[in-house]
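Entry 14. Two folds queued back to back today. First construct below, sequence then structure tokens.
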Amino acid sequence: MAGINREAEKELRVLYERYASLVHARCRSILRSQDDAWDATQDVFMKLNNALPSIKNRAVIYSWLLSTSTNHCFSLLRRRKSVSFDEEIHSAGGADHVPHQEKEVLFKEVLRHFLAPWDQKVREVVMYAYFDGYKQEEIAEITGLGASTIRKYLTRFKRKSAASGLKFEEVRYG
């Protein structure tokens, strides 16, 4: 029994070394806080530790971590029940006067705001497409969803968001 625990611990350590920076980057892009992102990263790996025995296909761990980190961070945001905006960015005199890096932050804040009411799967697909810059084929592979479903989710999201004033053609960051 002790050998099994050591093997599981070793496997978790290897997975942490391989994927912690990916999970942390995802969490940081959603939570906008370095400390909160590290806490969330630890939470996600604790969930992985509990889920590892039931994950038979180790090839899905990458997508499991992305999905779990996204869902975990959105749950944390829902608990906060607010979307915070950086006052310096919003008082800079409009999009033409905002430096590139701050424009990216603003875009991500607005996108997170627009994602709040959407279903988990739609949020996940939108995150992969607009936060991470994945192509639709890659999203299909990661999520296991069909290409037509991904197109449908992205099209519906873009239409409803555009009706509210968010235009993806003007600014796109991956």
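Second construct, same run, same settings:
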Amino acid sequence: MKNTGTLKVTLPTDREVVLTRVFDAPRTLVFEAFTKPELLKRWFGPRGWSLSVCEVDFRVGGGFRFVLRGPDGKEMGMRGVYREITPPERSVHMESFDDYPGESQVTAVFVEQDGKTTMTATVLYESKEVRDAVIKSGMEHGAAETYDRLADLLASAVSSRTREAGEGSLQARRGVGERSV
């Protein structure tokens, strides 16, 4: 199985992968979920995986470090540096994985229409060979499951926002970090 059916994956050039997913949530919430460590820990990674390390310095020139832990205990680390940030519509960062060669540029664009947000992530690899190796590693299925987990979190947040009218963000609703969405 390569994809859960909710993620569109295209290969527009020899060095790019474009991932497109529609979320049933306003883009401010979607963007927040991509940028706040306390939210990333709740959805980032395929089903059964957890984010055991989640460090984010979300500013241009700042970076991130993630370590995903699989159900078998295997870990996969990644890091990056933010190059461009335009909340809540766009971010560009460089990204590298501990166990894979090279560095890629990820450009994420968030477009809202009628309360739904389309997220388009364009990943530009150093070469066709690196792009193809990433595809063969199961990236499409992992990304699809990861975004499905995000969709579940956002659905919960939107439902809670409807019940708790007037509260503006996932972070605000969580208060000191004790309440979950």
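Quick look at the second one. The helical segments are 27-35, 37-43, 128-136, 139-163, 170-174. The beta strands are 8-10, 16-23, 50-56, 63-69, 75-86, 90-97, 104-113, 116-124.
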